[in-house]
Amino acid sequence: MKPTKRQMRGLLRPKLLTLIEDFLTWKATSTKSVNDLFKNFEQKQDAIQKMLVDERERFKDQEVVAAPVKSQRGQDEQKLKPQQSPLFQGWGENLSDEDQEEAQALFEKYGYNVFLSDRLPLNRELPETRESKCLQKKYPKDLPSIAVVLIYLDEALSIIKRAIRSIIDRTPEHLLREIILVDDHSSNDDLKGDLDVYVKSIEAQNPLFRMVRVRHVESLGLTQARISGWRAATADVVAILDAHIEVHKEWAEPLLTRIKADRTVVVSPVFDRVNYYDLDVVHYVPAAHAFDWALWCMYESFRPEWYHLNDTSLPGKSPSVMGIMVVDRKFLGEIGALDGGMKVYGGENVELGVRVWLCGGSIEVVPCSKIAHIERNHKPYAPDLSMSMKRNALRAAEIWMDEYKHNVNIAWNIPIKDHGIDIGDVSERKELREKLKCKPFKWYLENIYPQLDTWDNILAYGGMKNLDANICIDQGLFPGHTPIAFDCFNYGPQHTYYHSNGELYIGGLKSHKYNDNRCLADSGEDTFPDLYDCNEAVQKGMGIHWDFTQGKELKNRQTKRCLEIQKQKLVVQKCTGQKWEIQNIIKPF
Ligand SMILES: [Mn+2]
Q1: Which residue in 221, 490, 553, 575 is deepest, having the highest Cβ count within 10 Å?
Q2: Architecture of the domain defined by 458-585
């Protein structure tokens, strides 16, 4: 699905913090319905709690921790002044105290400004954010028909109504065959009776067109909701969207024109961001939908060829989709729809992206098609994204990534063998891969996504422990340049990666070739080690290559000094034979 701004940075620590924020917010707003959805939450909570405690301790003094409104609530459920909430950013100062409290309560429940949404016209105008050349384009009248699937779980009623309204008002009547509402077992009462009334009124106004309702009797997660919507569709093309969107005028025609020309192309519109606080639309420029080895999605530049064409209204190739997609209905079935073995959230979009490219299709982002999409402050339904993210990522890797599949383990710091995470039965999906005669993943890396680093020469990863002092290397204050010794807890800031050339990266491993890692370095001058982007460290004349074997000393090749612990501090000094051990070994060294 769509990444938050934090996820888009593609760094491990912000991801973890996002998770913590989600968790704190969830805890504060927890309701019976959420409890019902996550019956097995207790066990998961233990794991998250541990991360929380560790991370809080570690980053107490740093500004990146969750906004005060959340951390306070998470700790003691203390009642806040609404003005302190992120909801009140340039909005709502003039409301009465009562209204502010109501707005805040709705915001906590939904993650966006429902109070305001309830008061805006359903058919509000959107600003023109398309590339200027798009405004001159003419599209054929004779295009494939389209079904629009809106999936939701406890979405606000006015938000869903506005999505429906925008689709009906801004899709040519002769092309729009049906709107399919897929409810993944919401508990909100207004999504029953009140939504029914609205749907009836739409049907009465448009007798030729279908409004289809699909309701899951239990929550099956994002992927299953999308599959249910696709199954219920009858039109030539299916658009699978979130329900917290508004389509822009002429959104469908450019997509349908592309699919008419080539039924194997999966297309995505360009999203504009709708602020969760004031519901204003912020212009986003067209970009490719990419991902890292943890399978978090992020925006990335198109390939250089696209920029050489010098026409920003043209479709650009994309390694993946973020979750919103428009595709020939039958073609999606031919290539295996979505992987029904994915749970809750995450990874399913990358799985589709890779599969489409490997099995005979392609993916494009179409700049002239725009959809405004609310980026929530928090997701009301998913306190523990990382658990399903990890599991789904391992599943996608097992099916599609061949000899590169272990990179997903490395990205999540999961052991390669005996990790104990159940990825479900993958035999059916592997058979599908055989049946479709899909290309090897190496082809995808070489031809479709060459920016993704293959991590071929990483020998070992995870926490790096000093066996004499029983303490770990930690990146220290970020973005500072002095790594420290700290109690081993083996989360992001303590992740290390040993490269066959002797480089030792700390605090994360970059997935993309265009990013530099942070190298452990020794200047040879003072007592403390350094941590810089590897290129920068080399420019500064520092030694970044270390001789190391498991259970032995860690010795800088240039300065001949060793990384050691002295009085609980991480130092570089004349070697005294202190031993180090790294958590996970990929190949012997
Ligand atoms: Mn969304």
Answers
A1: 221
A2: Trefoil (2.80)
